[in-house]
Amino acid sequence: MAVRRCLVQGTPHPSRGPALPPSPAPVPAAPLAIVVMGVSGCGKSTLGALLGEALDAPFLEGDAFHSPQAVEKMRAGQPLTDADRWPWLDQLGQAAADAILAHGTAVVACSALRRAYRARLRAAIPAPVRFILLEHSREELLARLAARPHHYMPASLLDSQLATLERPTPDEGAMVIDTDAAPTALRDAALDWLR
Fold first, then answer.
1. By three-state DSSP, how is residue 177 classified?
2. Which of 1, 52, 80, 104 could be stapled to 173 by a disulfide with Cβ–Cβ 3.0 to 4.6 Å?
3. What global pTM score does this model have?
4. Residue 38: is its pLDDT beyond 80?
5. pLDDT class for 178, splitting at 50, 70, 90?
6. Beta-strand (E) ranges in the chain?
7. Which of 69-78, 110-119, 153-162 has the least mean pLDDT?
8. Considering only the top CATH level, what class is 4-15+27-194?
9. What is the Cα–Cα distance from 173 to 94, expressed in whole angstroms?
10. Contacts of 24 by beta carbon, 8 Å cutoff, 6+ apart
């Protein structure tokens, strides 16, 4: 396995040009979990939803699985600890496992910042797990976070997330997308990689 680095070029986001035509979606031959990962504001939810739609697979928004206590902690500007994250990862992993058993494929948006968190998800999911890391500059991430003022995750926590992030290593077989392209271009690059 290796980490595939991809610089996607195409119509810049947000909608500064015509949309790209949809690409044909692959049909997974075997059960599969796709985890779109990265720090807050990188576009996990957008890409995850597009992949779920293209693959006709359930999309699980990781933020929806945080406990009320974890949400309040983040809202107050306090970074989560591993003790906060383990139950969240376990619950999200179980939901992905259930979705795979019911549908064959599941797409998950989850920060999965550390290798140990990715291993925890892999252990909970009874299928191969493919990780897609979305990367942007700190400045771009701050601009994206400022554009979503009603989300509980404040921009003040971005630096702690960037410090926590452990980029996937070659043995994890992940795709790393470093881009400012339109979400549809990201979707198409991810679908090509998944084929």
1. strand
2. 1
3. 0.83
4. yes
5. confident
6. 4-6, 32-37, 59-61, 105-109, 129-135, 175-178
7. 153-162
8. alpha beta
9. 22
10. none
Which amino acid is located at 70 in the chain? A
Instruction: Tell me if 177 sits within 8 A of 135, measured CB to CB.
Output: yes
CB 134 within 8 A of CB 37: yes
Neighbouring-strand partners of residue 133: 37, 176
Cβ-Cβ contacts under 8 Å for 38 (sequence gap 6 or more): 44, 111, 133, 134, 135, 165
Question: Measured between alpha carbons, how far is 58 from 48 in angstroms, rounded to an integer?
Answer: 10
Helix 183-194 to helix 44-55 angle (10° resolution) is 60
Q: How far is CA 94 from CA 45, 52, 123, 147, 174, in A?
A: 19, 18, 10, 32, 21
